[in-house]
């Protein structure tokens, strides 16, 4: 086109092109995809419950390999002052720590976790499922194969003989709320805002996986400078639909025996004070799910304790006879609902997620917990339970408190008996400050803690029981400390969970984390051993003594913990446990206290039937007897409660 142009025309064209380049240089910045990703994450903030703002990401957990060390690793080094990187010993453990951090932060802050491709990535899938079930935000950044496929198959690559697009990271798809595979640098311009929308959405919150092809991590692109502008995300508070709200207030106003169920949504919404005020004014009793426990402190007059299979006798008795149940922020899974056999009254499901609000034939009230409780309170200023119902509540609570006092007492049945889990809980609970955060997950302890632990402060109970994942406990203690360093935390784990994942104990030591770990050694999987016996099964493959071993192991947990740098001691008696706990909870650093416990005992008071299928045919009498009880138990399950009259 310029073959016949004059010199001045050529100069103008050159100037115009130069100006375009200069303008583009001012509005764009050349970065690798990984550099752009870390810069974007560092620019995100979230409005906190107290109105302040804080960085959305408190850091990134990383174990580097060939799939992430050169690309993302270099980018993380460049942003380490704004986006710190932490190193763990197991990818699943790192992810558990990140998830626990988000949970204890009431989903207002979070972390990312990165691994190489192959086993590093698949190690995180279990943690992704845990976050998915519990509706908790975490960003997974696993490395992936080469997008250009030049070195195909690369080291650790999983090959599908019929689909060339499949990699090990496809395992994340069913356990991620949002999944994307980044095969070009510019794709993060769309993927990252979508990821943040999910991570900060009160209804759709959960794990996000961005699968990062390792060659693309290192590829450069001219990114818009505006993409990295600081942004503060506001967690929306949804108001209820007026029609749904009118139905809810009409049903509540007519209730004679109302009950409130406090779920995790109360805590994530920051609605603890609102729940306490509403319960105090109306007198309506409150029962808590595992996720909702400590939304209301246990000493509150309207707090009936835990609900369901691991519930208190008081809460379950009233749940069975309540005519209206206001479920606030709960997904009402089988442990809370007694396998759908306990609650017979009309449920009003106040929830941000429509999937949860429609369960159990409930009347949906789709809204934020804090907003909804305040609106209900304003709309029902005269709502108050009867004096006779209040008296019944007080009587049931007194009976339950007496039962708790007995099972948590330090007095043992005989001088030869090992302490029960409930006695261990009592000994520890009596010797920690009110603001202590108790941490646990799978096995015997979640059930006993749900019933018996007395939380003295809001958000003082941190239990992973949605996925009931063994091995969560120690890593979770790290995340809890990082989220609430000014509050002491005490972790309960059985010997089975300890053996399954203890490597992050070394991580806690090297990070200077403060935690007190109580290891209850019942020499096997005591919880499932009791379930096996309760369903008619023979003692088999749960306790070490009932498994096929050439040598019965005698594991020295004190020596093992000490070898990883912890202060570790053995409590030979409950009295010693009390003294050791009182001392350890005041320490900085990691303390481990080991105590032998009786695997056969659990708290009989409280609880309710749980649906665990028993074989219909067996040569063993005990199984046949258990099946007969199972068939009878299944008749408890609700066929679907009728809607309120006229609605």
From TrEMBL:
- Thiamine pyrophosphate enzyme TPP-binding domain location is 442-594
Q: Name one GO cellular component term.
A: acetolactate synthase complex
Cross-referenced InterPro entries? DHS-like_NAD/FAD-binding_dom, Myo_inos_IolD, THDP-binding, Thiamin_PyroP_enz_cen_dom, Thiamin_PyroP_enz_TPP-bd_dom, TPP-bd_CS, TPP_enz, TPP_enzyme_TPP-bd
Tell me the CDD domains matching this sequence. Answer: TPP_PYR_POX_like
Output the PROSITE patterns linked to this UniProt entry. Answer: TPP_ENZYMES
Q: List, in alphabetical order, the Gene Ontology terms for molecular function in this entry.
A: acetolactate synthase activity; flavin adenine dinucleotide binding; hydrolase activity, acting on acid carbon-carbon bonds, in ketonic substances; magnesium ion binding; oxidoreductase activity; thiamine pyrophosphate binding
UniProt keywords, alphabetically: Oxidoreductase, Thiamine pyrophosphate
- UniProt domain Thiamine pyrophosphate enzyme central: residue ranges: 248-376
Superkingdom to which the source organism belongs: Bacteria
Q: Please name the GO terms of the biological process aspect recorded for this protein, alphabetically.
A: inositol catabolic process; isoleucine biosynthetic process; L-valine biosynthetic process
Q: Which residues are in the Thiamine pyrophosphate enzyme N-terminal TPP-binding domain?
A: 71-157
EC code(s) of this entry? 1.-.-.-
> What is its EC class?
oxidoreductase
Q: Does the keyword Oxidoreductase apply?
A: yes
The Swiss-Prot or TrEMBL record describes its family as follows: Belongs to the TPP enzyme family.
Mind telling me what this protein is named? Acetolactate synthase, iolD
